[in-house]
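Quick one, C-alpha cells below. Sequence please?
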C-alpha cells in the first residue's frame, strides 16, 4: 500500500497551503526590504546626481523613494503578520500529519491494543489544535465557508479512508508503508535540505567576503590618498550587510547541522526498524520517529547547535 500526503485530512492541506503562501509573502517582504536598502545606497552614492532646475537632484530623490519603500514594506508586513501565520500554520500542518501517521500505522498512543483509537485520535487532534488556537492559529473550520471545505470537525471526517485502510492492514504492510513513505521520505528531504543549505552558505559567504575585500581595498587606497572618493564604500558596506542579513534570516548555517543530525537519527531508526523492532516495540518506535521529524525538535537543534 502507498500512503501519500494526498491521503491526509483536508485540514492538513488547508494549513499546509496557507503556510506555503505566508512563507512566500514573508520571504518576499524581507527580500524587497534588503534590495530597496541596497538600491537606496546605490542611488545616493553615485557621483552624478542628475540635477534638475539647478537644485533638485533626481537620483537622490529616487534614493529617498527607495528608503520610503522600505518603510512601506515594513509597515505592511507588520499588519499582515505573514511570518507568524506561516509558522503557526506550518506547526498545525505538521502536527496533523504526524498524528495521522501515528494513527494509521498503530503508533503510540494509537497502538493495536488501544481501545477506542478513533475517539482518542479525535481527542488528541482537537487538544493539539486548541493549543495552537490559543497562540493565534486561525482554525478554518470556524469559518462557515472554509469549515465546509475542511469537513467540519467530526472525528470521522478527520480520519480519511486511506488512513482507515492502512490501519486495518497487518503489521508487515503497515511497517513497510511507514518506512518507505514516511521515514525514508523524510530522511531524503533532510538530506536535500542539507545539500541546499551547504550550497547557499558557500555562495553567500563568498559574496560577503568579496564585498568586504573590495571595501577594504577602497578604504586602504583612501587612507594613502590614492583616491579621495569614498562614495562606494557605503554601497559595498550596505550590500555586504544585506547579504549577511539574508543568510542569517534563511538560517542556512545552523540548519546544516540540525538537518544532518536529524538525518543521522532517522538513518539509525531506519536500521532499527528493519532489523530489531518487533511488533510489540513498534508503537514506541513510530512515536520516537515522529518526535525526531517534528519542527520543534529541529528548532531545538538549531538553537542549541548555534
Amino acid at each position: 500500500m502507498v500512503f501519500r500526503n494526498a491521503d491526509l485530512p483536508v485540514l492538513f492541506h488547508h494549513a499546509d497551503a496557507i503556510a506555503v503562501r505566508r512563507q512566500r509573502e514573508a520571504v518576499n517582504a524581507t527580500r524587497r526590504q534588503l534590495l530597496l536598502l541596497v538600491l537606496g545606497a546605490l542611488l545616493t552614492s553615485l557621483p552624478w546626481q542628475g540635477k534638475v532646475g539647478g537644485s533638485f537632484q533626481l537620483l537622490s530623490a529616487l534614493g529617498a523613494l527607495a528608503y520610503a519603500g522600505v518603510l512601506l514594506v515594513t509597515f505592511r508586513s507588520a499588519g499582515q503578520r505573514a511570518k507568524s501565520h506561516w509558522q503557526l500554520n506550518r506547526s498545525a500542518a505538521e502536527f496533523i500529519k504526524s498524528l495521522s501517521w501515528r494513527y494509521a500505522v498503530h503508533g503510540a498512543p494509537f497502538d493495536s491494543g488501544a481501545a477506542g483509537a478513533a475517539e482518542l485520535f479525535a481527542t488528541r487532534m482537537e487538544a493539539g489544535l486548541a493549543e495552537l488556537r490559543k497562540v493565534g492559529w486561525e482554525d478554518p473550520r470556524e469559518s462557515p465557508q472554509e469549515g465546509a471545505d475542511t469537513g467540519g470537525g467530526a472525528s470521522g471526517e478527520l480520519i480519511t479512508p486511506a488512513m482507515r485502510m492502512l490501519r486495518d492492514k497487518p503489521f508487515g504492510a503497515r511497517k513497510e508503508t511507514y518506512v518507505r513513505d514516511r521515514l525514508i521520505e523524510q530522511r531524503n528531504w533532510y538530506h536535500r535540505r542539507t545539500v541546499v543549505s551547504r550550497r547557499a552558505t558557500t555562495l553567500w559567504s563568498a559574496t560577503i567576503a568579496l564585498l568586504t575585500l573590495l571595501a577594504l581595498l577602497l578604504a586602504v587606497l583612501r587612507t594613502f590618498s590614492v583616491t579621495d572618493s569614498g562614495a562606494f564604500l557605503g554601497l559595498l558596506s550596505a550590500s555586504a550587510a544585506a547579504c549577511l542579513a539574508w543568510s542569517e534570516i534563511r538560517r542556512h548555517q545552523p540548519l546544516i547541522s540540525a538537518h544532518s543530525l536529524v538525518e543521522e537519527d532517522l538513518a539509525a531508526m531506519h536500521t532499527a526498524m528493519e532489523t530489531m523492532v518487533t511488533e510489540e516495540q513498534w508503537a514506541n518506535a513510530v512515536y520516537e520517529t515522529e518526535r525526531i521529524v517534528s519542527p520543534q525538535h529541529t528548532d531545538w537543534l538549531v538553537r542549541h547547535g548555534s
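Residues 171-223 form the longest helix (53 residues). Residues 151-156 have pLDDT under 50 and may be disordered.
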